[in-house]
Amino acid sequence: MKRRNFVKNATLGSMASVIGADIVFGSVMPIGYKPLALQDPDPFKLFDKDNEMVVLNDKPWNIEAKAHLLDDKVTPNKFMFIRNNGLIPENIDANKWTLTFDGESVKQEKTYTMAELKSKFPQYTYQLTLECGGNGRSEFDPPAKGNQWTIGAVSCANWTGIRLKDILEDVGINDDAVYIGYHAADSHLSRDPEKEPISRGAPMTKALQEETLLAFKMNDKDIPLAHGYPLRLIAGGWPASVSGKWVNRISIRNKVHDGEKMTGTAYRVPCNPVAPGDKVKDEDMCIIESMPIKSLITHPKTGAMINKGKKLDIRGHAWAGELEVVKMEYSIDFGSSWQSCPIEKPANRLAWQHFNASIAFPKEGYYEVWARATDSNGISQPMLLPGWNPKGYLNNACHRIAVKVT
Ligand SMILES: Nc1nc2c(c(=O)[nH]1)N[C@H]1C(S)=C(S)[C@@H](COP(=O)(O)O)O[C@H]1N2
Ligand SMILES: [Mo]
């Protein structure tokens, strides 16, 4: 055998093992050709996600879960949605990572290394609910542009890091500080270094909350690259866009932060209700802060079949932005009547809460189980769509699953 063929055969074998099947006509495949199966990165392998996760977009990567994948009390990485506005930073060296504080309202610009952040400040771990403001967008009519999230752009993982308020105290901020804005290492889709894909923030009151973290661990390990390695802001209960990934600079602003996707219509809803399809002026759009009351049935999967006379056990999670969920109900008659079921206390503030119920059905046939949560202000989820808004944010309609009793 000639040396050249030997190399080729070895390569064929290794390609076949990556593909997981014999390349049947491999002997006539042009030398140097890369089979399609190897050309596109496999997002499930690339990001360590479960095969059942749904890819909505690959430039940039946007991946969501299905309801039944979110059954865990604490969301593992493989079921956590990914929402990127730009390109994930490459070649990160955590040892060289720094975080700089600047802005109009900083006493003095200051930069910390990762080692300083980890050694100088006490560390805390919280379970924090992160939901994309656009979760549920796919249901709005007229439709809104953007990723057509169904129900899976939400997670609740364990986040470990230092409190932003502790570090802000060390930095020193002026009395006129009203907002923080993050800047990060991801690049704009155009790769124009002058442009940022996203630079959002939060008012000082949110920045100074105990649960607002600069996190370096997710579920006890280094944060996965797609979720903001090596350092990320976490502001649970608010649109997850506030939780900047790959954060390397935080500006202390003397006005509402005006970074990318803070202004115009981005992550804003009409200050007052509008009719579906209405045009809304920028100045009549208000920044989304605490996310609305919502819940998800994570077991069983929609389409469940049970035998007549058997009860159906359901379970899931409910969350309410800055508030607590105080009541959980389900309906099997399209919302005509509701039964209460137990809702657990949150592991900590801003963590989602778990519910369960055992449901009896009167006779054979098709049913839907609808779940409805109520927050500590007495506000419940709408049964179907909430008020329409131009960008399709904040769809907190009751989650529904189909069940057949046979
Ligand atoms: N630097 C940076 N941070 C970011 C984003 C981004 O594109 N770049 N996307 C934001 C949005 S819109 C959401 S919903 C969350 C998604 O977090 P996840 O991908 O870890 O689930 O990250 C936020 N933080
Ligand atoms: Mo988002």
Summarize this structure briefly.
11% of the residues lie in helices and 31% in strands.
- Helix and strand pattern: HHHEEEEEHEEHEEHEEEEEEEEEEEEEE
Structural class: mainly beta
Which sheet architecture does the biggest sheet show?
5 strands, mixed
Identify every distinct bound molecule in the structure, by name, code or SMILES: ligand MTE, molybdenum atom
| Silhouette | globular
Number of strands: 23
How is the CATH topology of the largest domain named? Answer: Sulfite Oxidase, Chain A, domain 2
Q: Number of folding domains? A: 3
Query: First CA to last CA: what distance?
Result: 65 Å
User: Taking strands numbered 1, 2, ... along the chain, how are they ordered across the largest sheet?
Assistant: 5-4-13-8-9
Instruction: Please report the first level of CATH classification, the CATH class of the largest domain.
Output: Alpha Beta
Report what the structure shows.
The strands form six sheets. A five-stranded mixed sheet has the order 5-4-13-8-9. Strands 6, 7, 10, 11 and 12 form a five-stranded antiparallel sheet that branches. Helix content is 11%, strand content 31%. It has three domains: 2-39, no CATH class; 53-287, Oxidoreductase, molybdopterin-binding domain (Sulfite Oxidase, Chain A, domain 2, Alpha-Beta Complex); 294-405, Sandwich (Immunoglobulin-like). The chain is mainly β and 406 residues long. The chain is built from six helices and 23 strands. The model is unreliable at 1-7 (pLDDT under 50). The ligand Nc1nc2c(c(=O)[nH]1)N[C@H]1C(S)=C(S)[C@@H](COP(=O)(O)O)O[C@H]1N2 binds next to strand 3.
